[in-house]
Amino acid sequence: MAWVTWRQHRTALIGLCAAVVAIATYTWILGAQLHQSYALVLACRPIGSAACLQLTGGFNDFGGFLTNGWMLQLPPALIGAFVGAPLLAREMETGTYRYAWTQGFGRRRWTLAKLVGLAVVVTAVAGAMSVLFSWYYQPYFDAVNQTRGLSELTSLSPSLFDLRGLAFAGWTLVAFAIGSLAGMLIRRVVPAIVATMVAYAGLATATGVWLQDHYVAPLVTKSLNVPRTVWIVNQHWATKAGQTVSQSALFQVLRKAPALVSGKLGGGPNLHSLAAWQYLVKRGYVQVTSYQPADRFWTFQWIEGVWLLALSAALISMSVWLVRRRAV
Fold first, then answer.
1. What's the pTM value of the predicted model, to 2 decimals?
2. Cα angle 174, 311, 206; round to 5
3. CB under 8 Å to 187, separation ≥6 — which residues?
4. Which end of the chain is more exposed for a tag (fewer CB within 10 A), N or C?
5. Average pLDDT over residues 83-89
6. What element of type H or E holds 237?
7. What is the residue-averaged pLDDT of the chain?
8. Concatenated DSSP letters of 20-45
9. What is the pLDDT of residues 293-317, one digit of tens each?
C-alpha cells in the first residue's frame, strides 16, 4: 500500500517536497542575514550614533513579506487543499476505488494506508519547517527585550504563534484531515479543494479571533508599564470605580489639557502618547490592560496542539467511516 500510495500521489508529494525545499532555502538564507544584522546592532557603540541608527533601521526593515509571518500561514492550507482534498475525491470521482478494493485489501485498510501514511509525512515535514521558522524569528523575540525599539514581535504575536512549536504541525495535520473529509463528502476534486480552503480559513480565523486568547484566563493590570514581551488582549480606560470610559469622553478631557497634550498645536489629542496617559492618570482615570505573559508560550502550544490533534483524529475517523458506509 505504501508503494501504491506513492505511485498514485507522487506528483503532489514531489510538488510538496519542491515547495518545502524552496521555502526552507529562502528562509535559511534570509535568516542567516537577519541573525547577522541583529548581531551588528547589538555590537554597535555608541548606541545613538548615526551608524548605529542606520543599522537599527536596517534590522527593522529586514525580511520583507516574512517579517509579520502572515505569508507563512499559507502552507498548511495549501497542503490540505492540494494533498488532502484530492486524496479520496479523485478516487471517488474517477471510480478507481472499485478496482482498488479487488486487490486483496478492503476499504478500511485502503483508506487508513492512504490517510495515516500521508498524514504522518505532512506532519513531519511541517514539524521540521516550524523548527526553521523558530530559528528565523528568534532575533525579533530577543530584540523586543531591548530598549531601542528594535521589534514589536513577541512569541505570542498572533501572526507568529502558529508558525512555531507544536501549532504549525497541528494546523498542517488538521488542514490535511479537513481536505480528506471534504473529498469524501463531495467526491469531486475541484469543489473539495475550494471547500477545504474555506473550512480551514474559517477555523483558523475563529481560533485567532475568539478562542486563542482564552486558552488561559488573561492577567489584568492597571499599570502603564506593561512589559513589551506580552500579548495584549484588551486595553481600555476606566474610572477608579471601574466604569469604562469611551474614547470620545477621553478626547473631551484631553482638550482641556496643555497645548502639547490637547493637540491645539495641530493633529488633535493623541491617546497613545505618554504625556496624555500621565494627564489622564492625574485626573483619576486608569488604563486597564488584559494580557497574556510571554512565559505562557508553551502552555498555549500544548493546548492548541492537543485540540488540533484530537480534531484531526476525529476528522480522519469520520473519513474512514464514510468510506466504509457510503462508498458504493
1. 0.87
2. 75
3. 89, 92, 93
4. C
5. 89
6. strand 231-239
7. 86
8. HHHHHHHHHHHHHHHHHHHHHHHH-S
9. 999 999 999 999 999 999 999 999 9
Joined together, the cell numbers standing for residue 226 give: 506593561
CB distance 288 to 237 below 8 Å: yes
Is residue 105 over pLDDT 70? no
Convert the pLDDT of each residue in 243-277 to its tens digit.
999 988 988 888 888 876 776 656 667 777 888 88
Q: Where are the alpha helices (DSSP H) in the chain?
A: 2-43, 50-60, 74-79, 85-94, 97-100, 107-143, 158-161, 165-186, 189-206, 247-254, 259-262, 274-282, 297-326
Q: Which of 155, 161, 160 is nearest to 293 (CA)?
A: 155
CA angle 249, 251, 255 (to 5 degrees): 125
Contact between residue 160 and residue 70 where contact means Cβ atoms under 8 Å apart:
no
- Measured between alpha carbons, how far is residue 271 from residues 153, 240, 264, 274, 287 in Å? 22, 18, 14, 8, 11
Residue 209 has a CB neighbour count (10 Å cut-off) of 10
In contact, 158 and 149? CB cutoff 8 Å: no
CA distances from 40 to 27, 54, 57, 62, 150 (A): 20, 11, 12, 13, 13
Return the amino acid letter for 261.
Answer: V
Cβ-based neighbours of 280, under 8 Å, separated by 6 or more: 237, 250, 253, 254, 287
Q: Cell triple for residue 130?
A: 516550524
